Amino acid sequence: MNKQAIAQLLDQAAMNAEAVEQISGTQSFTENQAYEIQALAMEERYKRGDHFVGLKLGFTSFAKMEQMGVHDMIWGRLTKNMWIENGATIDLNSFIHPRAEPEIAFKLKKDLDREISLEEIPEYIESCCVAIEIIDSRYKNFKFSLEDVIADNCSSTGFVLGDWHPLPASLNNLQMSLSFDGEIVESDSSNAILDNPYLSVCNASRLGAKYGQPFPKGSVLLAGAATPAVFIKTNSTITATVESLGSVSCLTN
Ligand code: 0L1
Ligand code: MG
User: Has residue 248 got a pLDDT over 90?
Assistant: First the structure.
């Protein structure tokens, strides 16, 4: 299959909520080609009226990188149709095997079009908030290679954002948790995100520069999960909490 055919296959899998076999099982492709496929697949969404609103980083925990045998983060695109209002109900029939992650999100104050340092973050980032990321691999059994998952837009599917807060001096040592119906199912310190969630911004800027993708002012940036992702159940309330940033929820039917 050529890149366009793979992009269309993954786009249809997401649209119809029907899993496909991992591409790397039958043909090999490079990381660069995987990002090209991701961009082509997103073009299919944009043609239907959706649009880019931000990006997410994946594999931001050193444990997850080690587990996957990789040494760098991956990034995917967030779109308007993935945005779920805080407190809204999501229809699980439109997903394949969705999982939730507790995250921290940032909002860009100006175009992020070059690699920036930690010291430059206040110039580029306006605010932060607690977030839930919903991921849903388009591959059967959530099984994929690094190239497969990049082509599949890093499993990006949905995100819920809380109230925006001015940037604190530090985002370290904050307790983060994911609850189902008020019961905590996963929790960890914000340090699980690259030892410092602000480093996600620096890494997003580095990856954007590497792949020739500037991120416009106003974009949302999901910094990566602090805990493993947890399978979502029907008829439940999913809540992510970050100490000092508050909570955000969505419901499932
Ligand atoms: O951390 C993430 O948002 C997940 C990135 C893609 C890998 C996965 O689907 O677990
Ligand atoms: Mg995530």
Answer: yes
The DSSP bridge partners found for residue 220 are: 54, 107
Residue 238 domain-assigned (yes or no) = yes
CA distance linking residue 50 with residue 111, whole number of Å:
21
Whether 11 has a pLDDT exceeding 90, the answer reads: yes
| The token pair that represents 129 in the structure block | 């908030």
Helix (H) or strand (E) holding 203: helix 198-210
Which residues have CB under 6 Å of ligand 1? 56, 58, 101, 133, 135, 137, 149, 154-155, 224-225, 229
With residue 225 as reference, give the H or E element that holds it: strand 220-225
Over its C-alpha atoms, the chain yields an Rg (Å, rounded) of: 17
Enter the tokens of residue 253: 């039917």
pLDDT of residue 71: 81
> Which among 56, 134, 135, 220 is the best mutation to test ligand 1's pocket, defined by most ligand atoms within 8 Å of the CB?
135
The per-residue pLDDT for range 193-246, each reduced to its tens digit, is 999 999 999 999 999 999 999 999 999 999 999 999 999 999 999 999 999 999
Mean pLDDT score, 124-131 = 98
Within a domain: 20 = no
Domain count, the chain: 1
Q: What is the CATH number of the domain that holds 187?
A: 3.90.850.10
What element of type H or E holds 44? helix 31-47
